[in-house]
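Go through this one:
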Amino acid sequence: MSRFVVFLVFALMTLSACTSTGNADQDHDTATPEETASGPAAVPPGDVATLRVEQSPAVGPVVADREHYTLYLNTQDGTNPPRSTCLEPECTLVWAPLLARGGKIEATGVERSLLGTVQRPDGLEQVTIAGHPVYRFVDDEQAGDATGHGAEGRWFAISPTGGKATR
């Protein structure tokens, strides 16, 4: 199954969970890693976001997720207070927000004081680094890619200090 199809299925499951009248929290908390879809939105709601610093051959030190995929900031997002401008499906299907309910974030190499979450309009919590909401880029096909760096002049790999990654 292609990554896009897996991602699309995950996105549809997430959207349906947001509109469900049942206890969505219970459903997410009982899923095992094998039951969750992999793809650009690798951390389902309610899971612990795992961050690590890695060396990108293209842009230097970057923050990556648990699967070693580069994370990005959007310069059009607000940082004080944190606010995401990537809310519509045409954006979130390409730039998947990294989610973590209740501020559940584990990080290696990133100062704890820089970490947080911001609540999105759908009620999900998106991870922030230095106030920047963070995302994963759908066109990064393998761990370590940073193909989204500089996209549209507003998407940049995020450094461990919360700014744009630069060599």
Remarks:
- The chain has one domain: 3-157.
- The two ends are 36 Å apart (CA to CA).
- The CA atoms of residues 70 and 146 lie 6 Å apart.
- The chain has a mean pLDDT of 79.
